[in-house]
Design a protein that fits this description.
By secondary structure, the chain is mainly alpha-helical. Helices cover 62% and strands 0% of the residues. The chain has 2 domains: 60 residues, DNA polymerase, domain 1, CATH 1.10.150; 108 residues, DNA polymerase, domain 1.
């Protein structure tokens, strides 16, 4: 997952040359990108002023991908090593995960063969049937951590807004 997220962030910026340093320095999870600041770029020894500006500007608007939300949910449940299998089986967003039927055939297709992992997946999937709400809450929290208290207060008082709209605004 790590290099996929880095490439999704740096690719559109035309700054692939920094992919290795992002990986080496541990800025390798999509939720890292929306909180990048000047100190992070210093830690990665990214000194080109234009590149720094481009990266920081992109960071302020970056939203983790739907695939990352699936990865995060799997990771939260200790089964993230199945991420590639989920993507190959076209479970690329949390809605698809929440409506999948956990039959023996699906578990086999996902290559979840160990009984403990099957149980962990069923337990993670069963209670919610919609894991996206918790993931979206965490992503919103990660994005709003970089906001000023007055901005957060404004967003919270706009309670008629959907969670999606709140996440989109960070």
């Amino acid at each position: 997952m790590n290099d996929i997220g880095i490439n999704k962030f740096l690719g559109p910026l035309g700054l692939h040359q920094y992919a290795d340093i992002f990986q080496i320095k541990g800025y390798d999870v999509e939720s890292d990108f929306c909180t990048l600041d000047k100190d992070d770029l210093d830690a990665m020894n990214i000194t080109d002023k234009e590149h720094r500006g481009t990266i920081l500007q992109a960071a302020t608007h970056y939203q983790p991908s739907e695939e990352f939300e699936v990865f995060q949910w799997l990771r939260d449940n200790g089964i993230d090593h199945y991420f590639g299998n989920f993507i190959r089986s076209n479970y690329t967003n949390l809605h698809q995960v929440s409506v999948m039927e956990l039959t023996a055939d699906v578990l086999h297709e996902l290559e979840v063969l160990l009984p403990g992992h099957r149980k962990r997946l069923k337990n993670a999937w069963q209670p919610r049937k919609a894991p996206d709400l918790e993931i979206r809450r965490r992503l919103w929290s990660a994005c709003t951590d970089k906001m000023s208290p007055s901005s957060k207060e404004f967003m919270v008082t706009g309670a008629h807004m959907s969670t999606d709209a709140l996440i989109m605004s960070c």
